[in-house]
């Protein structure tokens, strides 16, 4: 078994989980800070604001799923870990980068956009869902694209053990 390939592959999985998770946590923190301020004055808006706060959490989920699929591809749950060449390991690492970078950047910006929507809802509650959620969801598209590309490359583009 070549350990260098396995090391590259697991590094890719870790980067996907770490960067997407960092983006989500920063985005969640940003939106939650804004929501706390609004809720201190208007607690009845909790339901609407909660959606704007949790939207950035999806990036972390996408990174986690890609990391999990890397581990499944490597047969880490099946007993005998797959024999991965250094080149295949680099391919897996590269496949993890779209979800990692897209999740990191979009999570931060989605949190900022959610926070802006939350602050807007303090004065215009009817706009919280119309504009706040819609604008934050537009950013989600790029996290989804990074997730899909990473997943498609992992599932269809890299052959191990063939």
Outline the fold blueprint.
Elements: H1 3-41, H2 46-54, H3 57-73, H4 86-123, H5 126-157
List how many beta strands DSSP finds.
0
Structural domain count: 1
User: What is the CATH homologous superfamily assignment?
Assistant: lithium bound rotor ring of v- atpase
Which stretches are poorly predicted, pLDDT < 50 over at least 5 residues? none
Would you state the CATH class? Mainly Alpha
Largest sheet: none
Strand content: under 5%
Assign the CATH topology.
Four Helix Bundle (Hemerythrin (Met), subunit A)
- H and E string: HHHHH
The termini sit apart by: 15 Å
At CATH's second level, what is the architecture?
Answer: Up-down Bundle
Q: Gyration radius, to the nearest Å?
A: 19 Å
Number of helices: 5
Judged by helices, strands and strand pairing, the structural class is mainly alpha
Mean pLDDT: 92
Q: Could you characterize what this model shows?
A:
The model has no long low-confidence stretch (mean pLDDT 92). This protein has one domain (3-156): Four Helix Bundle (Hemerythrin (Met), subunit A). The chain is elongated. It is mainly α. The chain is built from 5 helices and no strands. 83% of the residues lie in helices and 0% in strands. Helix 1 (3-41) packs antiparallel against helix 2 and helix 2 runs parallel beside helix 5 (126-157). The two termini are 15 Å apart.
């Amino acid at each position: 078994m070549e350990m260098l390939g396995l090391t590259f592959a697991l590094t890719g999985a870790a980067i996907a989980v770490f960067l997407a998770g960092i983006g989500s946590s920063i985005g969640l923190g940003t939106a939650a800070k804004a929501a706390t301020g609004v809720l201190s004055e208007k607690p009845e808006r909790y339901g609407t604001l909660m959606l704007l706060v949790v939207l950035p959490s999806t990036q972390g989920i996408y990174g986690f799923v890609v990391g999990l699929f890397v581990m499944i591809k490597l047969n880490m749950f099946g007993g005998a870990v797959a024999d991965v060449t250094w080149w295949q390991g680099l391919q897996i690492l590269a496949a993890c980068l779209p979800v990692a970078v897209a999740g990191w950047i979009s999570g931060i910006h989605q949190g900022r956009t959610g926070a802006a929507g939350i602050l807007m809802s303090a004065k215009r509650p009817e706009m919280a869902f119309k504009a706040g959620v819609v604008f934050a969801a537009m950013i989600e598209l790029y996290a989804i694209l990074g997730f899909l590309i990473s997943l498609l490359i992992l599932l269809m583009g890299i052959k191990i053990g063939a």
